[in-house]
Amino acid sequence: MKKLVILTGAGMSAESGISTFRDSNGLWENHDIMEVASPEGWKNNPALVLEFYNKRRAQLKEVTPNEGHLILAELENYFDVQIITQNVDNLHERAGSTNVIHLHVELTKVRGEHSVNESIFWEDDVQLGQKNDKGEQLRPDIVWFGEAVPKFEEAVVMAAKADFMLIIGTSLQVYPAASLMEYPKANVPIVYIDKNPAIEEDDENRIHIMPYTATEGLAILKDKLIQIALS
User: Fold this and answer.
1) Which residue among the candidates 69, 92, 102, 104 is catalytic per the annotation?
2) Which candidate, 10, 5, 71, 70, places its Cα nearest to that of 195?
3) Hey, which of 9, 137, 141, 192 has its CA 20 to 30 A from 82?
4) Rounded to 5°, angle at Cα 168 from 122 and 90
């Protein structure tokens, strides 16, 4: 099977009703992103950060995978699919995708505030005073701005093995995730699906731009990809 590597961002889940911050002047649910997604924000107001992610975790129970998620899961019948996502939701898995790397970890995981290698499955609210076995306050196990991305090297290895690459619903502004498009071999086709694409097609015609939402673009591309897989 040919290897299809897919990088997804916030636009992938937006059509399921999960809010993004990139389309609203840097605000995420009316919060400055640095207030709720940075070590400084956590230090300044941990109660606010916990409340913010408690709401995101609760919202996750109310939304469902969209058609785009389902198409990506279906493509596992034709390709060796590896999804690398910037998203912290679990919609890829709930749609049926089996190989997913979460660069920024997941909403349904928490850890002690100083235990960077800890990851505890958690679906409910987290409150101030709830601690891990070491007596550390629990915090979202999410990679915030300014923190290391522990699974990036794994993602680089996957990107370098791609026969085809899709980039879906990402502004290509958040690093190091945005740099993953640089790792496939020079002859590997890249298709970028985004309603407001951040880049233009390159002179070598290697990067193909599809200015659509995730579901629209994947619906157009699906049959072409299956034809490639079966050829």
Assistant:
1) 104
2) 10
3) 141
4) 15
CA 46 to the chain's CA centroid = 24
- Side chain identity at residue 4, one-letter code: L
Predicted confidence pLDDT, tens digits, the chain (231 residues):
999 999 999 999 999 998 766 554 555 667 788 999 999 999 999 999 999 999 999 999 999 999 999 999 999 999 999 999 999 999 999 999 999 999 999 999 999 999 999 999 999 999 999 999 999 999 999 999 999 999 999 999 999 999 999 999 998 888 899 899 999 999 999 999 999 888 877 666 688 999 999 999 999 999 999 999 998
CB atoms within 10 A of CB 182: 9
Residues forming beta bridges with residue 11, ordered by sequence position: none
Whether 104 sits among the annotated catalytic residues: the reply is yes
Domains along the chain with CATH numbers: 1-18+66-104+149-231 (3.40.50.1220), 20-62+112-142 (3.30.1600.10)
Cα–Cα nearest to 4, from 225, 231, 224, 182: 225
* Contact between 4 and 79 (Cβ < 8 Å): yes
Question: Would you state the structure tokens that stand for residue 163, as one six-digit string?
Answer: 């026969």
Phi-psi region of 105 (alpha: psi -120 to 50; beta: other; left: phi over 0): left
CB 201 within 8 A of CB 208: yes
Token output for 182: 């640089």
